[in-house]
Design goal:
It is a single chain. By secondary structure, the chain is an alpha/beta fold. It folds into 4 domains: 41-200, Alpha-D-Glucose-1,6-Bisphosphate, subunit A, domain 3 (Alpha-D-Glucose-1,6-Bisphosphate, Chain A, domain 3, 3-Layer(aba) Sandwich); 205-311, Alpha-D-Glucose-1,6-Bisphosphate, Chain A, domain 3 (3-Layer(aba) Sandwich); 319-439, 3-Layer(aba) Sandwich (Alpha-D-Glucose-1,6-Bisphosphate, Chain A, domain 3), CATH 3.40.120; 441-566, TATA-Binding Protein (2-Layer Sandwich). The chain has helices at 3-13, 17-28, 32-39, 63-80, 84-87, 99-112, 126-135, 170-179, 202-215, 237-246, 280-289, 319-333, 350-357, 369-381, 407-423, 428-439, 456-470, 545-566, and strands at residues 49-53, 89-93, 117-119, 140-144, 153-160, 195-197, 227-230, 252-254, 293-297, 304-310, 313-316, 339-344, 361-365, 385-391, 395-398, 441-450, 480-485, 490-493, 499-500, 509-513, 517-523, 529-538. The chain is globular.
Length: 570
Amino acid sequence: MDLIAAAERWIADDPDPDTRAELRALLDRGDEAALAERFGARLEFGTAGIRGPLGAGPARMNRVVVRQVTAGLAAHLLATEPGARRRGVVVGFDARHKSPDFAADAAGVLAAAGIPVHLAERPVPTPLLAFAVRHLDTVAGVQITASHNPAPDNGYKVYWSGGGQIVPPQDAEISAAIDAVEGPPPLAVPGDGGITALDPGVLPAYVTAVLADVVGGPSPEPRDLRIVYTPMHGVGRDLTRGVLEAAGFRDVHVVTEQAVPDPDFPTVPFPNPEEPGALDLALDLARRVDADVVLANDPDADRIAVAVPAGGDWRVLSGDEVGCVLGEARLAARPGPASVVGTTVVSSTLLGRIAAHHGAAFVQTLTGFKWLAQATAAHEAEGRTMQLAYEQALGVMVGTVVRDKDGISAALAVADLAARCRAAGRGLAAAVDDLARRHGLHLTRGRSVRLSGADWRDVVDAALARLRARGAAPLAGTPVVAVVDHLAGTRTPAGGPPSALSTPPTDLIGLELEGGARLMVRPSGTEPLLKCYIEVVEPVAGGDVDAARARAGARADAPADAPATELGVA
């Protein structure tokens, strides 16, 4: 590839003075290595869209890439959705750098292709965009967001008719349509008639639906619960507070330093509530005001983190603990085979035991809410209702108001459960411990190895190849009883023949360990990470949950530390 010619062509087509200047500076100093990073490949469309660092060239997030991706999406919609020119697409954006520009470009390309657009006029949480797709009956939705990625990133997320994220083969078909785009696509401008403002009635409709599903409707009376809340410099504050207040939760203290949308996320290195230290400011405020619960959204408000008083201080609940305690609450109120709960193969096995206890159906899917949304639709077609679905990375879908993870309705569900626990003279931590006493202590841990360099994907592939090659050899001194290879679609017990899995193929390997533990490893679909998931199940003897938790933690240490060292990515 002639990098200089490619950069010059890009500059000629680029509407953004910032990225034009970036490329011009690289050309002026002859930095071919930096040019190769930007033009060596293009961002891969998958996992419901694209996500990556801002910058010039096809390997970065920028206005040219957004226009090309949208042109491919428009072509695919027109080829596969007969109602596209009538039903249109809803386009939203968060508060990250360049998000308003990217949304305007996406709207302009869609409208120029003859697809009407409902364009948000201000930043909106991702769950509201997903809700709007169903509420307005559009053929698709586009949300400009990088969710909880670092500040230099942005992204482009696609929802399909029905409000769920796209699933294979749609991603590959849209990617092929993007590859077929030649030259800058036509662009409509405001006033052409193809772009209208998002209906302001979407927001109150969302609030009404969430209140009805989670708590049975608004509450005129205040509820006795003191909440500390942080939107993590994102866009969730006003809608989350509005939903909580309408439900009677008026004693809400917002973390001042993180209350206003800020695309630089100045108080956290990574705006992800899972990251160590991300909740420090919220926990400090909770101690000062003597709160009952801490609630945190990520920047686009599709995730929920929860911390509770425990042992004289505060404990951050895992995503599995949040999902399971909410699943228990939903099923206790709605038991029986007409109810369904679901989670992913890398999440705790506890939810399946909870479902069995309440006589409810249970579904397990591959990682990603696109699969859980698909399972929701399938069960609804058979007359069942998905009461709750979750994945361990703090994503929770309460009911089916939104067919995706929704940190706002999940915050309300946690507040409701915490208030009911307080009214009964106990804390939310006690409800988590009750599950351990009934089903065993299910301790889960996640480890992520962050990689760098343009060859990070090759490093991940090599690590997973080594994991496959080791077979059922002991891991950190613990015997392996079975190897589960989701790419090959097999579960192979040590010394036995393989059996077939029921899930679609994906690059995920699991090791089932002696004593009820397991380790699962996969690459991230959106970041340069190798992700590891550990679960240990420990019986609770004599009702002493703390002792069981300590034993489980000791058992989890070795398999948690093993992947990075054994796979050569430490």
